[in-house]
Write a structure and sequence with these properties.
about 425 residues; Rossmann fold; 2 domains; 6-stranded antiparallel beta sheet; 14 helices; about 40% helix; mitochondrion; ATP-binding; AGK_C; Diacylglycerol_kinase_cat_dom; NAD/diacylglycerol_kinase_sf
């Protein structure tokens, strides 16, 4: 008992040192517990991948070839270590023939795609910038019709991984997010995604232009204000200039009806007698060829607009949703907001830039042209990458690429329709 009393007396007399020691031990315990959980997640993912690697393949089959485009500079230079610890062991245990190509500078991924050989799958390991470079380089190829059919996987290793929310279950644990995305490659579930052609690049998410986008780029400058930095950035922006409207001329085409999906199962081949009969019938009765029809002229609708922010986005947020038409969504935020409403709505949009404000005008279109009154009026955000604003034409390439998707997330999106 005397020893216990002595311990409590010591803690009371040295309460500052005791408090510091408790904080250090608590933080260290929490850190060690997190490392243990990460190792457990890696071990479970490797066990699941090994099961795929133990599956037998036929004598005429070959190992699947996977080409990985890895950006080591992503996530502030941590991407290479994240890939080697969390994704590479899963791919190797699954029995794949993995070819890793690392980029050395910005824009190199586009050039590498011009030289890429035929592969069974393409894996993009990086962030939004790496993803956009690879997609742009892929769709610029002369034989892009062939290479665009290759299934693509996205392993989120960057600081910004916006597309990952459409393909995989969201998780605050980085290790779980990466291992889940890698395991989805082995399971083979894919979803078609739309692509926006915005010369000279291609995008999977969309284009932003306006006041909310400009303020979002300056939020990090007010880091010293802590949780108030987002509101402070919008407030200071109002003091510098108000209203912050953008004037442009918008032309757009109506949505295109979506053709029916092709059957996934191949119908059985007719018997021999029926095939002989069909050939003889085609030989004696040559089918009449209809004269080619001239394509109908495109009917563009023109509109002069004034808006706080213009957004052109795809429907890739829920790629499994059934739609009757192929279209992209043009959103025009109203220019009648007060300064208080601008700060409130801007705080919400900082969390989800593609979210529209209340009473925003939304237009479904298959193509759009933005004619700016003068070049260099601000900047565009195209898939979270900045480009100088200029007059552009945006074309929708419906269901152009197929991406690997988590089966659980795909089922979740199907139930949310």
């Amino acid at each position: 008992m005397a020893r216990v009393v002595k311990v409590f007396r010591t803690l009371r007399n040295h309460w500052k040192k005791s408090t510091f020691a408790v904080c250090v031990l608590s933080y260290g315990g929490h850190w060690l517990y997190g490392k243990h959980n990460d190792n457990v997640l890696r071990r479970e993912a490797c066990i699941e991948a090994r099961a795929f690697g133990h599956q037998l393949i036929g004598p005429q089959e070959h190992l699947k070839k996977a080409t990985v485009i890895l950006n080591p500079a992503a996530c502030k230079g941590k991407a290479n270590r994240l890939f080697e610890k969390n994704a590479a062991p899963i791919l190797h245990l699954a029995g794949m023939e993995v070819k890793i190509v690392k980029t050395d500078y910005e824009g190199q991924a586009k050039k590498l795609m011009e030289l890429m050989d035929q592969t069974d799958m393409l894996i993009i390991a990086g962030g939004d910038g790496t993803l956009q470079e690879v997609i742009t380089g892929l769709l610029r190829r002369a034989d892009e019709e062939t290479f665009s059919k290759i299934p693509i996987a996205f392993i989120p290793l960057g600081c910004s991984n916006s597309l990952s929310q459409s393909l995989h279950l969201d998780s605050n644990n980085k290790v779980q997010h990466i291992t889940s995305a890698t395991l989805s490659i082995l399971k083979g579930e894919t979803v078609p995604l739309d692509v926006l052609q915005i010369k000279p690049v291609f995008a999977l998410l969309g284009l932003l232009w306006g006041a909310f986008r400009d303020v979002a780029c300056s939020i990090s400058n007010y880091w010293y204000l802590g949780p108030l930095k987002t509101r402070a950035a919008h407030w200071f922006s109002c003091l510098k200039q108000w209203p912050q409207t953008q004037q442009t001329s918008l032309s757009y085409l109506a949505p295109v009806p979506r053709p029916p999906d092709l059957p996934t199962e191949i119908p059985p081949r007719p018997n021999l007698l029926y095939r002989i009969y069909r050939r003889l019938q085609n030989y004696w009765n040559t089918p009449i060829q209809e004269p080619p029809k001239d394509p109908e002229p495109e009917r563009w609708e023109n509109k002069d607009i004034s808006t706080l922010e213009l957004t052109v986005s795809t429907h890739n947020k829920n790629p499994v949703k059934r739609r009757e038409a192929d279209s992209m969504l043009i959103t025009l935020d109203p220019d009648s907001l007060t300064a208080g409403q601008f700060i409130t709505e801007g705080t919400k949009k900082a969390l989800n830039p593609m979210e529209s404000v209340e009473n925003a005008l939304q237009i479904e279109a298959s193509a759009a042209c933005l004619s700016l009154p003068e070049e260099g009026v601000g900047f565009y955000d195209i898939d979270n990458e900045a480009y100088e604003a200029m007059s552009v034409e945006v074309r929708l390439l419906p269901r152009k690429l197929r991406f690997f998707c988590s089966a659980e997330h795909r089922e979740q999106l199907a139930q949310a329709q």
